[in-house]
């Protein structure tokens, strides 16, 4: 199979090889040293300010979403949630569950937020803002730098979900004023799912230390304390953390910009090659991580082609996974990811399959 989903994605064979080994015991100085390096590299990747820390959480990206919100905010807060798709909606749901007052900005489908959208929320007693840097359900990349300026002016704590955009798109924690940014292991880091990483700036750390979090597993105070000696409070997904170490080592050996350029060029190559296909790009400001597409063709019987059918036929007859969409949009759109161990030749195989589907009246 060739995997063009947005996670889990394909891993470098060298990283996969590590997954074949037995999982080692981890309360050792050797593992602690590896974790300290992981922390240092991740903070560098995020361009984090001095005195930032990383929380290594065993759980998928949604665990990081909930963990970030419940450790920094409570019923005394008032948050702005940018809700432009299913991941924005998840932030809102987390606020509901934890009884955190919030209001939503709902950008039009496939669009970013503007300074005017934010200006309407100025001076109204908000204390924080939650945004998915990349809203993976639509493929939109929000302008976090602009959002950061607004938050700075208004004194808001800024939490950024970069689960799919981390590495694929730029992240300048310090320059943009991001207090906490998190990602997951199975997106552009191209590791197995199971680990999420929360990069916390000094203000987020301070807030979390003063915050009473009603949870055993999700209280970051415990993680920050154990992290001082390169450990986690509970047994982590040890193997993935070792794979993470190898992956980061390789990224820094080759240069971070090179890895980002690889994803960006792969996305650009794909977007160029589909220009004459009956596929409408749905996003005005796309992340490098993913392209959202609406197939515009009609079938022999005059009905519109179906994204769900394209997904199934590619999977069952061509050995290719694209990323289906859920809910009301399932027949309307699908997505093609550009993260993970993919090449432009893989793009060519996908385009070739698309052309074949056109001949067969499926695309
Ligand atoms: C994938 C993703 C998540 C997390 O999803 P999990 O299935 O819990 O790993 C969160 N936010 C965004 C923007 C994502 O792309």
Automatic annotation (TrEMBL):
Family: Belongs to the class-V pyridoxal-phosphate-dependent aminotransferase family.
High-level lineage: Bacteria, Bacillati, Bacillota, Clostridia, Lachnospirales
Molecular function terms from GO: alanine-glyoxylate transaminase activity; L-serine-pyruvate transaminase activity
UniProt cross-references to PANTHER family, sorted A to Z: ALANINE--GLYOXYLATE AMINOTRANSFERASE, AMINOTRANSFERASE CLASS V
GO BP field: glycine biosynthetic process, by transamination of glyoxylate
Protein name: Aspartate aminotransferase
Entry superkingdom: Bacteria
InterPro entries to which the protein is assigned, alphabetical: Aminotrans_V_dom, Aminotrans_V_PyrdxlP_BS, PyrdxlP-dep_Trfase, PyrdxlP-dep_Trfase_major, PyrdxlP-dep_Trfase_small, SP_NH2Trfase/AEP_transaminase
């Amino acid at each position: 199979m060739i995997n063009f989903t947005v996670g889990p994605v394909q891993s470098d064979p060298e990283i996969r090889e590590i997954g074949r080994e037995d999982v080692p015991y981890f309360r050792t100085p050797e593992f602690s040293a590896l974790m300290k390096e992981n922390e240092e590299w991740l903070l560098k990747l995020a361009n984090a300010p001095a005195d930032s820390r990383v929380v290594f959480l065993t759980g998928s990206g949604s665990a990081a979403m909930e963990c970030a919100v419940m450790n920094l905010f409570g019923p005394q807060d008032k948050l702005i949630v940018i809700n432009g798709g299913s991941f924005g909606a998840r932030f809102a749901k987390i606020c509901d569950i934890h009884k955190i007052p919030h209001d939503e900005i709902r950008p039009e489908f496939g669009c970013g937020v503007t300074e005017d959208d934010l200006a309407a929320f100025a001076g109204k007693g908000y204390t924080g803002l939650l945004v998915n840097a990349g809203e993976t359900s639509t493929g939109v990349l929000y302008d976090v730098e602009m959002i950061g300026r607004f938050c700075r002016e208004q004194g808001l704590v800024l939490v950024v979900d970069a689960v799919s955009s981390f590495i694929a798109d730029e992240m300048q924690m310090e320059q943009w004023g991001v207090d906490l940014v998190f990602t997951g292991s199975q997106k552009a880091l191209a590791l197995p799912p199971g680990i999420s990483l929360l990069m916390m700036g000094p203000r987020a750390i301070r807030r979390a230390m003063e915050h009473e979090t009603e949870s055993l597993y999700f209280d970051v105070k415990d993680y920050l304390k154990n992290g001082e000696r390169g450990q986690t409070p509970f047994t982590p997904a040890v193997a993935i953390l070792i794979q993470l170490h190898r992956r980061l080592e390789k990224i820094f050996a080759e240069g971070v910009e090179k890895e980002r350029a690889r994803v960006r060029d792969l996305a650009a190559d794909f977007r160029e090659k589909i220009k004459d296909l009956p596929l409408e790009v749905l996003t005005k400001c796309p992340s490098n991580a993913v392209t959202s597409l609406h197939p515009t063709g009609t079938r022999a019987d005059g009905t519109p082609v179906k994204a769900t059918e394209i997904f199934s036929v590619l999977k069952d007859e061509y050995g290719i996974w694209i990323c289906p969409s859920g809910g009301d949009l399932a027949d309307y759109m699908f997505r093609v990811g550009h993260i993970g161990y993919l090449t432009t030749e893989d793009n060519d195989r996908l385009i070739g399959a698309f052309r074949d589907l056109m001949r067969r009246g499926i695309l």
